[in-house]
Amino acid sequence: MSTLVEAPQPLDAEYFRIRLLAWFDQYGRTHLPWQQDRSPYRVWVSEIMLQQTQVATVIGYFERFMQRFPDVEALAAAEQDEVLHLWTGLGYYARARNLHRAAQCVVHEHGGRFPVESVEALSALPGIGRSTAGAIIAQATDERAPILDGNVKRVLTRLHGVTGWPGRPEVERRLWALAEHYTPHWRCADFTQAMMDMGATLCTRRRPSCLLCPFEADCVAHARGEEQRFPESRPKKEKPVRQTIMLMLCDADGRVLLEQRPSSGLWGGLWGLPQFDDQKALEAWLLDEEPGSEVEGQWQCFTHVFTHFRLEITPVRAHLHRRGDDGALAGRRWYDPDQPDSIGLAAPVKALLESLSSSTLL
User: Fold this and answer.
1) Which family, according to the similarity comment (predicted)?
2) DSSP secondary-structure letter at 5?
């Protein structure tokens, strides 16, 4: 485990800002969709989508989301199912649920206006932390608000040789102090975007473009030839493995039975296939819930990786020799893979349904 050592003193703030903004004016990204017609709502949606997700992936999702929900009122009035449907494939679905909840808070508690007067007020909304609040305020209002997302952490840890995993409180405090030191009172939107662009396009995780960096001569990690050391990784912990069986029960019309997941927890609020711990539990459930069903076989097991564990999924196909009851219990529905509905689906479930749609067994 690394020992936390005092990093070199910060660079002169004015020197840092001038060099960074000069680089941004020449090479920075200024044509991203959320940079056009900039508003707190559009910036907020983009910032939530960009958490744990690359810009290239987000662009299409953002444009589709804005087309369907052009303002916070439209998003607040939507059904959660539709929000999750438009989020399908982006992962980390708690972001979408929090986005929907926050929109309702903005409409019902703030009269449709985002509370961008302070980081504290904005971060009181679901799903908005200190750094995200800072990014929204800086980019939507051009007011001063430091940020510390993954890109900025990488730039600052390399520039100053800050050791230790950034998730450790003492390391995070050091990085926030640096972010505060460098953040100016002018051109705040450009400075914030420039910091993120530096990490995303130059100071990348692998193979950083140090020779093109405006701080090549100042960077501690580069001087030591230790760019890949920073930021230091979270102490490794073996991911536990869990197993589940997913039931693909098709009725006489080729429709598949889906269940809605609980609103919180794994795949919260999404629609998925019924899940079981073992084959015996699956067969008992079929006997109770859908008598007359017949198990046809097991598909190849595959693994879906989450942040904290690995899920081994075994798909089992079964057939119901009649049309499924459309008046089924609440929280269930029969889904036609050939005519997909606008509902939120977990990524592995979506993939299985697409396989069923093209299956000659239907």
Assistant:
1) Belongs to the Nth/MutY family.
2) -
Picking from 229, 231, 266, the residue whose alpha carbon sits closest to that of residue 246 is: 266
The predicted-structure confidence for 329-341, as pLDDT tens digits, reads as follows 678 999 999 888 8
Catalytic-role residue among 6, 14, 47, 180? 47
Share of the chain above pLDDT 70, in %: 96
Nearest to 171 by CA among 157, 181, 159: 157
Q: Name the DSSP class of 341.
A: -
Give the model confidence (pLDDT) of 56-100 as tens digits.
Answer: 999 999 999 999 999 999 999 999 999 999 999 998 999 999 999
User: For residue 184, what are the contacts with CB-CB under 8 A and spacing of at least 6?
Assistant: 13, 17, 144, 191
142: left (phi over 0), alpha (psi -120 to 50) or beta: left
For the chain, the structural domain boundaries read 13-152+163-199, 241-357
CA pair distance 255, 324, nearest whole angstrom: 8
Neighbouring residues of 360: CB distance < 8 A, sequence distance ≥ 6: none
CATH of 13-152+163-199 given 3.40.50.1820, 3.90.870.30, 1.10.340.30, 3.40.190.10:
1.10.340.30
- Specify whether the CB–CB gap between 141 and 116 falls below 8 A: yes
- Are 13-152+163-199 and 241-357 the same fold in CATH? no
CATH topology of domain 241-357: Nucleoside Triphosphate Pyrophosphohydrolase (3.90.79)
Decide the pairing of beta strands 302-305 and 332-335: unpaired
Q: Identify the band that residue 124 occupies on the pLDDT scale cut at 50, 70 and 90.
A: very high
CA 320/CA 341 separation, integer angstroms: 21
Indicate the residue type of 333.
R
The yes-or-no answer on residue 312 being catalytic is: no
52 alpha-carbon distance from chain centroid: 5
